Amino acid sequence: MRNISTRSVLATTYFLPAAVAVPALLGMLFQQMLASFFGFIMEKHFHRGSKEG
């Protein structure tokens, strides 16, 4: 995840059009959504077996 933010900074610093940063930003958004979804699934999976009652 650190490399994606570095890519966006380098793209906006060394290349004039802002459109060069779009792939890096889309990758960052995709990674955040995927991590959130994976965390949700893992929480449901592991907490389901630990509930007593």
Describe this structure in words.
79% of the residues lie in helices and 0% in strands. It is built from two helices and no strands. By secondary structure, it is mainly alpha-helical. It has one domain. Helix 1 runs antiparallel to helix 2.
Summarize the structure.
Helix content is 79%, strand content 0%. By secondary structure, the chain is mainly α.
SSE blueprint and pairings:
Elements: H1 2-14, H2 22-50
Helix pairs in contact: 1-2
Task: Name some characteristics of this structure.
single chain, mainly alpha, 2 helices, 53 residues
Q: What characteristic shape results from the CA principal axes?
A: rod-shaped
Residue share in helix: over 70%
Helix and strand sequence: HH
Number of domains: 1
Ranges where pLDDT stays below 50 over 5 or more residues in a row are none
Task: Tally the beta strands.
Answer: 0
Distance between the termini: 40 Å
